[in-house]
Amino acid sequence: MKKIILVTTLVLISISVSFSQVAPDPIAIISKINKKFKLISDYQADVVIDARISFLKILPQKAIIYFKQPDKFHLQSKGIAILPKQNFENLYSLLAEDKSYQVFASGNEIINTKPTIILNVIPNKDTSDLVLAKIWVDIAHDLILKAQLTTKINGTILIEYAYSRYIESGLPDQIIFTIDVKKFKIPKAVSADINATSNPSSNSGKEPKKGRIIVKIANYSINKEISDAVFK
Q1: Helical H segments across the chain, by residue range
Q2: Contact assessment for residue 52 and residue 229, using Cβ atoms and an 8 Å cutoff
Q3: Could you tell me how far CA 149 lies from the centroid of its own chain?
Q4: Are strands 156-162 and 174-180 parallel, antiparallel or unpaired?
Q5: Which tens digits make up the pLDDT trace of 149-197?
Q6: Are 211 and 184 in contact (CB under 8 A)?
Q7: CB atoms near residue 5 (< 10 Å)
Q8: Which domains does the chain have, with CATH numbers?
Q9: pTM summary value
Q10: Rounded distance between C-alpha atoms, residue 232 and residue 198, angstroms
């Protein structure tokens, strides 16, 4: 009887140790993401921004984006280019401040044949627009494939990343933002321009609740020491 109890105890200990070895460490996962992203001191890239929002009648716009660590971002366009306040690097800037949030794993999911771990990130202070960030991480490549941001101002924003040519640098070739149309805030200058040319009678009251902003990115120029003057 004692032998049976001893064997059972050893089996349970073995299972416990095995589980602890494979259980994801959320802090370590985010640390790897941050480490990879910090290798990019700055970049410049060409983008095409296609805003598919019911009340916006604008064609896809060409633009140039600039980024410089830790959180400088600038978009240069001759036309109307719409992006959420939670732009390309906003999420990475949040994750870089590891003492400003709590994180825990909440499951797994396959995204485009790639296994991911789902992490929930909760800010420590109630002073930012962000309430909760849910991210899907491809731990094999230390990449965020999807993020769902719950915000106070713009509602829920879903961000989907696609990687190809610049996957080793962790830079996406395409980003798709799915937004709450009723809560999405348009910059005042853009809003004034749209209102001046729009026709209120054309609103049927049955506009889609969700909109999409598709951003295609190409021709990255990485770590070229972009001047701070670009961001002023």
Answers
A1: 2-22, 26-37, 90-96, 188-197
A2: no
A3: 8
A4: antiparallel
A5: 998 888 899 999 999 999 999 999 999 999 988 887 766 555 444 444 4
A6: yes
A7: 9
A8: 24-197+206-220 (2.50.20.10)
A9: 0.81
A10: 32
